[in-house]
Amino acid sequence: MLVAPPTRRVWLDLILPPLCAFCGDEVDGVELCRRCQRILVDAWPPLAVACRRCGLPRPLPLEDTAHPPEHCGECADRQFDFDSVAVLAVYQGAVREAVVATKRAGTVALAAALASRLAERISTEQAFVAPDLVTFVPSHLLRRLTRGGASGSERIAAGVARRLGVPVAGLLRTTRWVGKQSLLPDERRRENVRGAFAVKSGYADKRSAELRDRRVLLVDDVLTTGATASEVARVLKQAGAESVHLAVVARAVRH
Ligand SMILES: [Zn+2]
Ligand SMILES: [Zn+2]
Question: pTM for this structure?
Fold first, then answer.
């Protein structure tokens, strides 16, 4: 009697049983165990209202406020090159853990789950205008090599694009090594990223049909001061983009 040889997948599972991308428990074919899916993705409530200009949470508008201000008090004196921000949640607790986990190689399911929630969020925003193109903040080659493959943001951007039914493109490249923004005081962050990104040569021509008059959705995992996203938006607009809207999984809030 002939017995079919086990498939490669079965062999791999025997040697390396599939583990939950987050807690490391054994799972049955999926990348997130049911408990982690619930804790990390389904349970945390989305931010009720965020400032459309800087993404910070703001109090719910009063019933009688017919015309709520365009921006919150925190960003009144700040300039960003992106046109609007959509935020899913505050960067804390399980949200923070989920975002950090997407940076590890092989956490495809987690990035996809976050992406689908983010896509759902932005497509239900009142002022939502469907983008023509989705992109992400590029990471330096060296960082990509040390971390292995696509960045968390890139995977989330791909998931958002799939959900929205628009193409995703890696429009940008880094022009130099960028020191970690998180290690710098706020006032140094802008200069740290200034000139650090460029549109890839295929898109760089101002007449490039890819970017000219296009509405670009820039997807990132965390928004802190907005310095990086603003610089990326500036570069995209210089290359012809009509508008750049930012969508982030989480907004860091200082206390
Ligand atoms: Zn788990
Ligand atoms: Zn604001």
Answer: 0.82
